[in-house]
Amino acid sequence: MVTFTRPSGLDTSRYPVYSGFIEVTSGSESYHVSYIGLGANLRDHQIFDDTAEVVLLPSPSLLNENDTVLVTPTNFTFNGTDHPKLFWRFVVLFPTFCH
């Protein structure tokens, strides 16, 4: 079993990502295992933006086929475009996942 300890001195408010690899060699066999870690506890940070400041829709929201926010119970047939849409925004972008 291998345990990873995040590097010291990371600014957790910036969602630091660290990575590396472990190479295991035995005789003529060699294995390269990559790893990635987040140097912050996601429970300590707000992940989803629940304001309507950037886009004039509350987040999260359920929308109908016309992108209107649902405020009352609505039935859908799930035929064609007659289905609900979930709209949400992240508070921050994770640069690692934006390539």
What is the CA–CA distance across the termini?
Answer: 32 Å
Q: Mean pLDDT across all residues, rounded? A: 83
Number of helical elements? 0
Note the overall shape. elongated
**Stretches with pLDDT under 50, minimum 5 residues:** none
Number of domains: 2
Structural class: mainly beta
How many DSSP E strands? Answer: 4
Give the helix proportion (percent range): under 10%
Q: State the strand order across the main sheet.
A: 1-2
Largest sheet: 2 strands, antiparallel
Global Rg: 21 Å
Strand content: 25-35%
SSE topology string? EEEE
What key phrases describe this protein's structure?
mainly beta; 2 domains; two-stranded antiparallel ribbon; 0% helix
What does this structure look like?
The chain has 99 residues and is mainly β. It has 2 domains: 1-45, no CATH class; 46-99, no CATH class. Helix content is 0%, strand content 26%. It has strands at residues 17-26, 29-38, 61-63, 85-87. The chain has a two-stranded antiparallel sheet with strand order 1-2. Strands 3-4 form a two-stranded antiparallel ribbon.
Summary, kept brief:
With 99 residues, this protein is mostly beta strands. Helix content is 0%, strand content 26%.
